[in-house]
Amino acid sequence: YSGKTEINLFSQEIKNIKVSDIMSVPVIVTENTSVYDAIVSLFLEDVGTIFVVSNGYLMGVVSRKDLLKATLGGNDINKVPVAMIMTRSPNIITIIKDDNALNAAIKIIDHEVDSLPVVEKIIKDEKEQLKIVGKVSKSNITKLLVEICKGGS
Ligand code: ADP
């Protein structure tokens, strides 16, 4: 192949892969969880981002840096709930499981975040709510890149 054909095949392959094919299990806490407990979850579950829910619906995102920042203020991190420090809905960048892997990668790069909650939209009391069904992170995208380049999928 010429280089251009190869790149076209590669981009076609990535567009044919769905978010549901590469997503992983999200780590989820409720909004009253303390910053301390969120940090413990981050280590125990070996993730960089935690999603926050209320009544099962997406409310926020807490990253490593959010948690680090919360430890600098001199507050008792056992008493500060993650709801105080999270990035809140509707400012959360999400993706649905039927979208493709390239769009997930584009969102991650354009919005400068490490991971996206994979969501299902639900209408509840005439309001749109989001249920979390997975997570796509830079790691999932990198794994996909390696799989494609090794020719095994
Ligand atoms: P880190 O803080 O470890 O560098 P990120 O780059 O993912 O991780 O997070 C940067 C900021 O963006 C944080 O304040 C975090 O709350 C927020 N953030 C992370 N993921 C998302 C997302 N999917 N949508 C909106 N904001 C996010």
From TrEMBL:
Keyword Transcription regulation: yes
Domain CBS: 22-77, 86-153
Organism: Alkaliphilus peptidifermentans DSM 18978
Coiled coil regions, renumbered to chain: none
Keywords: CBS domain, Repeat, Transcription, Transcription regulation
GO molecular function, one term: DNA-binding transcription factor activity
Protein's name in the database: CBS domain-containing protein
